[in-house]
Write a sequence for this structure.
């Protein structure tokens, strides 16, 4: 059973999550806090396996809370939850070290997928936010000289966007009005340019470049 700490000042939402997890055999909410400053003290006195962190808390910005938690518990999965879906906000949380970002408007199944992913050591980004990976709101940071900068073509960006959503070559071909063989060629080019070997590594790589 994964023990969850919720940091969210919207008590109705937090209480709804607590009620939802009452029927789960995998997750349980052990405490709810409403201030960012309460997160670390709670982690110090409670055994917590997962943090659900609202991006907009009354006292501290979400990224600041995430960085402090990451410094204290480097291995603790953090899932950001928020009504905010602006690219700059999502990227700020990802840069601060959260393992995933899920809108509060997400369906129950998507939330559970997010929890399973971050607890399994993966990075999760809700499908509605995948564009954040490909179209950063800020200039990309300089890349070390030993790592050449490769730019994806517009078509490769489109295919990469669909790959990180878990679509197959056939499904992507249908979406892009091309053939599965063409999609496979794009996939190989994307992987080669970014130095990755699968969709999980692709997601991580795009997050690093976001």
């Amino acid at each position: 059973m994964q023990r969850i700490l919720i940091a969210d000042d919207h008590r109705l939402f937090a209480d709804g999550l607590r009620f939802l997890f009452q029927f789960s055999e995998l997750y349980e909410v052990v405490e709810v806090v409403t201030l960012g400053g309460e997160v670390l003290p709670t982690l110090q006195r409670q055994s917590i396996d997962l943090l659900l962190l609202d991006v907009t808390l009354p006292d501290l910005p979400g990224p600041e809370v995430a960085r402090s938690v990451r410094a204290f518990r480097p291995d603790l999965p953090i899932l950001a939850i928020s009504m905010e879906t602006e690219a700059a906000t999502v990227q700020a949380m990802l840069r601060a070290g959260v393992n995933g970002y899920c809108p509060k408007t997400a369906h129950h199944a998507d939330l559970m997928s997010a929890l399973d992913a971050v607890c399994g050591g993966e990075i999760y980004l809700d499908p509605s936010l995948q564009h954040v990976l490909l179209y950063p709101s800020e200039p990309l940071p300089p890349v070390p000289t030993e790592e050449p900068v490769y730019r994806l073509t517009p078509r490769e960006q489109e295919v990469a966007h669909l790959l990180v959503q878990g679509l197959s070559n056939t499904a992507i071909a249908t979406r892009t009005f091309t053939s599965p063989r063409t999609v496979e060629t794009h996939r190989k080019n994307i992987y080669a340019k970014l130095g990755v070997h699968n969709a999980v590594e692709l997601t991580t790589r795009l997050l690093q470049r976001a």
Summary: The first helix runs from residue 11 to 21.
